[in-house]
């Protein structure tokens, strides 16, 4: 069986090396000026170094340029994309069509991955972006496994899905935390907490805790559980899904490295010997469960859950 | 190139500057009756939802028959109908789309408002005579993305609600395409299309019309340090909330007209007849007054008062004038009550006898102060005197929904005028 790429979000250069050793195949890096909800910040220089290191290990690096851009940053896109191209990035991740336009002008040979997070919900639209130049589509997290398998069958582009970690539920351009503190007359709190990313919204009715943070792209609210499907990989590997992403944002680097090495084993074994994978998978799931913080239960995301409308 | 385009906005006629490029006033309608009201009260175009593919799955939507009737009606007044078809489709929504779009086209609809390229491309293929407008669900925020959609052959783009006046100006200068922008109504606090709170919290897909406005619920804010959680609010503080005040850009209309925005959009397919009539007629007056004489234009207090009469939440200018701060959100409070209610719909007025015939839309009775308003008149108030049913029986009160009622009104009225009453606690 074909092995999907195992895609990681490193926190730093050192972490990237660690993840290479732990079995990652590819990385998403970038800076919040252009990319959304990154685990770590990589300046242009760090991107160059990261690409060099990863390539030495035979791994790939994708740079995130998937923010929702306003006029003010649009003029910087050409320069940033030619930087990505020259630095040797293996692809650029985009959501805003402005990036596609700028890439045509300044980096026509740079591969593109389409990722708006929430709107890649049918195969036709994935193929549409494919026809505009995308090589890969990153599917919305709110899809069932059946829908993913169908999309893979009908897609003419590579398909990437998230298999582990937190997902984003909400992005606002407004400074919602800052506004709350200002409303309470506690403007000092804003500076104190700026880069901490340790705040939670309690939803008493559902007994959920949603991580919430602010950055240059606005306010982001994240899912209350960590998705984990280390024990459900067979169907999607059989379908030939091209890339499995482990999202590291708001986790610790140690946790992400451990999870990576477990998924590495799971993917390898599933590809080589499905039966032994079936025997071992509970064990890996338990190992991850042991590592979870008490306020971050595991779940299976939307893989086995229908939404209505 | 920018200047030539802006030149088209105004010209000097008889020594006076007038606006020659009047923007379209675009109103929502949840059913045929509301569609007709919107047109009577001054909308140049109306957007409605069909039975499928629109983002209000349980709201009033139009059947194809009703669409046809709406289009015919609008045509006689020179107005256009657009259909919102702005879900992000899933695989299972692909079947049936072609037939649906052909149906819309045969109903004579002028355009569809779309977010998903699946629907854009299908419409271009099976119903090329229908204009395609990009929905705000795409959160279109910069000129280069506008350029992309122009090259894809779209007729119009609806911008993200996060764009400012200056940004819109730049888009208008750089790209030649129609731009539609919101001027009034409720808003998402998230970037449109980028919120799946409802999917997570209630298993309802917000991008297919299932949003349950989870953003408007109250939450408690905590901070987590060394495994401990600490509340970031005290006993008396309001809870963390993300509820935005409603958009109201009445004072920015002159700027929008000067920028050359092509269509000014009022939100609210689920809003009442009273709301649609009131909001549409106020903006109609503002646009007409400004275009006729921009130099001497002033916002009239009566327009602001009028909008207040149908407001059920506080209002703000949101992003048009810059990124909104905490004053543009609601904490602790949950909206105010509307002060006025729709009480009667005028069907006829007899100039000689001064008797009005109206359809009851809410309880009223003799002695009560009511206000009349309509598209081509100044509002006036009077006390209701004796009232009768159509058989001439005197009534103690107008109690029955849709009952026809007659009474004397001193100043002339016309069909389609409305009567509203101030809400007071009933004795
Ligand atoms: S929950 Fe709020 S922000 Fe999200 S889609 Fe619904 S109304 Fe918009």
TrEMBL record, chain A:
InterPro entries hit by this protein: Peptidase_U32, RNA/ubiquinone_mod_enzymes
Name this polypeptide is given: Peptidase U32
Native source organism of the sequence: Jeotgalibacillus campisalis
Automatic annotation (TrEMBL), chain B:
Gene Ontology MF, one: peptidase activity
Transmembrane regions: none
GO BP terms, alphabetized: proteolysis
InterPro entries: Peptidase_U32, Peptidase_U32_C, RNA/ubiquinone_mod_enzymes
Keywords tagged on the record: Hydrolase, Protease
Highest taxon listed in the record's lineage: Bacteria
Family named by the database record: Belongs to the peptidase U32 family.
This protein's name: Protease
Organism, as annotated: Jeotgalibacillus campisalis
The organism's taxonomic lineage, starting at the top: Bacteria, Bacillati, Bacillota, Bacilli, Bacillales
